[in-house]
Design a protein that fits this description.
The chain is an alpha/beta fold and 405 residues long. It contains 13 helices and 11 strands. Helix 6 runs antiparallel to helix 13 (385-399), helix 8 (253-274) crosses helix 10 (288-299) and helix 8 crosses helix 12. The two termini are 13 Å apart.
Length: 405
């Protein structure tokens, strides 16, 4: 069975056809327990392009013509997409085979999807890109499309032990994706490894650039995380230092917290106004959390919103200067492992600051033994997506971890 995207890319056309059936068999066997998919309906394989015949799944906030596009909400149960989003058209242009739609938290917010974490079914896979992360972690598909407004790619990747990549803001087209906060919404991907992500990025005609030496940075003191995450993060830094890399201590924890708060303010203000008409029509049927966000956000003053935007703009200037000296900054990808229970998708604070800044960020698995997965978050300057992906692949090699699955 082909598992990683790198294996798929190295396979023949005949091997890819066999592996596609393996994916469908895996879904048939595991989907009744994991619930990663809204609909599985493979389109006809493409014959041309680097991704020809390679299947992928796409989050159910992304419009897909003739397929379920229900936004994770029973209000839109049975709805079919009327057109393909730009990202779906781009995938098809490169030969990728749309396998189906993956589960999302309702309207990509806080009401959890039915998806379970493949590593422990009683734990959340994270959200809102729940199904996209779980489908890759369960070996149902080699890559998927997700979307992030606070931490909806990076956190599920950490919880599910896979690689999740949020590119520079506005680098991937958002046309045909249900908005939440237009200043923050960002498309991205899940794969097994950062090497797979590098291969996917190149297959989509995005440059990786040349190899280079770089100095790492890491927050000291560490942001407020659970003991298991702090221990895994410290262990990862020790391994990297032991491999000869320099890791510079950065006093940024408080700034990251402030940026996470600003991200939340912007999301609430913009999300409330986007969903206002939907709330006026459906009220609490939107879900308790989203309904409350709309009520709260419509009361929020424009002055508070503008102040959050000013803080983010200042942070972008501050981090642009920081990244000019320290090319790659490492932080935890979540506050801890996936929480037990399915009533919450987890805490996005470790990711929200980077979403606010619009910088590229990637979560890669850290060595944790037999414990629940934990991710290392790797970040770089806006536009430095190629550098970030190359750095992540190198760091994964030095950490010596294999994809969990």
């Amino acid at each position: 069975m082909l598992t990683t995207l790198t294996q798929w890319l190295n396979a023949s056309t005949a091997q890819r056809r066999i592996a596609l059936q393996d994916c469908l068999d895996c879904i048939e066997a595991l989907e009744p327990r994991i619930h990663a998919w809204v609909q599985v309906a493979p389109e006809a394989p493409q014959e041309n392009g680097p991704l020809a015949g390679i299947p992928y799944g796409v989050k159910d906030t992304v419009e897909t013509k003739g397929l379920a596009t229900e936004y994770g909400s029973p209000i839109y149960g049975g709805r079919k997409g009327t057109a393909d989003a730009a990202v779906v058209r781009e995938m098809r242009k490169h030969g990728a085979l749309l396998l189906g739609k993956t589960q999302t938290a309702a309207f990509a917010y806080a009401t959890p999807a039915p998806t379970r974490n493949p590593h422990h079914l009683e734990h959340t896979p994270g959200g809102s890109s729940s199904g996209s992360a779980a489908a890759v972690a369960a070996n149902m598909v080699p890559f998927t499309v997700g979307e992030q407004t606070r931490g909806s790619i990076l956190r599920p990747a950490s919880f599910c032990g896979v690689t999740g990549f949020k590119p520079t803001f506005d680098l991937l087209p958002m046309e045909g994706v249900l908005p939440f906060s237009r200043s923050l919404d960002t498309l991205g991907f899940f794969t097994h490894t950062p090497a797979d992500m590098c291969a996917l990025w190149e297959a989509l005609d995005h440059p990786l650039g040349d190899d280079e030496d770089f100095e790492l940075g890491a927050p000291a003191p560490l942001p407020d995380v659970e003991p298991s995450m702090a221990a895994a993060f410290d262990n990862a830094l020790a391994r990297l230092r032991g491999a000869g890399l320099k890791v510079r201590s950065l006093d940024i924890a408080m700034t990251l917290d402030e940026l996470a708060d600003a991200n939340l303010t912007v999301m609430i203000y913009e999300g409330a106004r986007f969903h206002q008409r939907r709330y006026e029509e459906h009220g609490d049927r939107l879900g308790e959390q989203l309904a409350e966000l709309v009520r709260q956000g419509l009361k929020m003053s424009v002055d508070r919103y503008d102040e959050a935007k000013r803080l983010i703009d200042h942070g972008r200037r501050q981090f642009a200067e920081l990244f000019s000296a320290t090319r790659v900054i490492l932080t935890p990808a979540a506050v801890g492992p996936a929480p037990i229970g399915l009533g919450s998708t987890g805490d996005p604070r470790m990711n929200a600051s980077w979403t606010a800044l619009g910088t590229p960020a990637i979560s890669i698995p850290m060595p944790v033994g037999n414990a629940l997965p934990l991710g290392l978050q790797v970040t770089a300057e806006r536009g430095g997506d190629g550098r970030l992906l190359r750095a992540a692949a190198r760091l994964q090699d030095l950490l010596g971890t294999e994809p969990l699955g």
